[in-house]
Specification:
By secondary structure, the chain is mainly alpha-helical. It has one helix at 2-147. The chain crosses the membrane at residues 41-63, 69-90, 97-116.
């Protein structure tokens, strides 16, 4: 019995040592597991923040693309306005040239009218002078005969 007790005691001591080592081991495992959970939670938080940063970056990229598209539209509209301004300037220049041509033609017509009206005035003067002399001559003759 003593041998059994001796073995039993050794066995108990061995079992106790194994238990203590096992507790230390499991304690370390628990600590490691607890630390691992914290690391995983921290990793999850970092992942969420990274996702939010990536989402923010995506939103900024989309807004930047919209701004670039808006800038392109404004540039195209500005180019169209410049082309329209050029067309209006060309049309205005054409109108000014046309106005100049009409003014020159009008001046030529006025000169032509003046040239035509001078001989006409001369004819009128001659006609009026001739008519006056005829009338005055007839009046003189009529007056001359009526006075006698």
């Amino acid at each position: 019995m003593q041998i059994f007790h001796h073995f039993s005691t050794k066995e108990n001591v061995l079992h106790f040592i194994i238990s203590v080592l096992s507790i230390k081991y499991y304690g370390k495992c628990f600590i490691f597991h607890h630390f691992s959970i914290r690391v995983n939670v921290l990793y999850f938080i970092i992942s969420v923040l990274s996702t939010k940063v990536n989402g923010l970056y995506f939103i900024i990229s989309v807004l930047s693309a919209k701004v670039n598209v808006l800038y392109f539209i404004v540039s195209v509209l500005s180019a169209k306005v410049n082309v329209l301004y050029f067309i209006i300037s060309v049309q205005s220049a054409k109108v000014n040239v046309l106005y100049f041509i009409v003014s020159v033609l009008s001046a030529k017509v006025n000169v032509l009218y003046f040239i035509i009206s001078v001989p006409s005035a001369k004819v009128n003067v001659l006609y009026n002078s001739s008519f006056q002399y005829k009338v005055l001559g007839k009046c003189f003759i009529f007056h001359h005969f009526s006075a006698k």
